[in-house]
Amino acid sequence: MLRDQHRGADLDVVAGGATRSESVRCALSALPGGTTTVLVHDAARPLAPVHLVEAVAAAVLGGADAVVPGVPVADTVKAVADGVVTATLDRSGLCAAQTPQGFRREVLERAHAEHDPTGPDVTDDASMVERLGLRVLVVPGHEEAFKVTRPLDLLLAEAVLTRRRARDG
Known about the structure:
The chain has a single domain (2-168), classed as Spore Coat Polysaccharide Biosynthesis Protein SpsA, Chain A, CATH 3.90.550.10. It contains six helices and seven strands. The protein has helices at 2-5, 20-30, 50-61, 105-114, 125-131, 151-168; strands at residues 37-40, 66-72, 77-81, 84-89, 95-97, 101-104, 136-140. Strand 3 (77-81) and strand 4 form a beta hairpin. The chain is globular and about 50 Å long.
């Protein structure tokens, strides 16, 4: 397992920026020279299982430029403009992207270097890689890698942790 290869590794804390992309750029600038693979993870997804992290890292190490975990969209998704539905999207080809997202370092650095911060907002690093015209591989995500951003999410997180404690003893 990948985690066993890095047990006891040094950990550096880097101050972030005002935006997600600024924070990632700060982290990239602090990486040691020999680092070739970068995983970007949201603190808002504290329950992402270890095997999900390992799957993303393995896909990048296996040759992918960029990797995102994704879960199929279960809800009907509507495109809306000015409060009016303009289309119902075919969810069979949609997934909700999660983190960690993995990248070859040079690809992520290029994506950030070419990103126009005054342009359209980006909500993840993979979308910056997409804008370069590069392929972003999707690996199966995990339902426990949900974002904890609302009060209901805290209840769900507590339930997941209770189940994990019961399972792991």
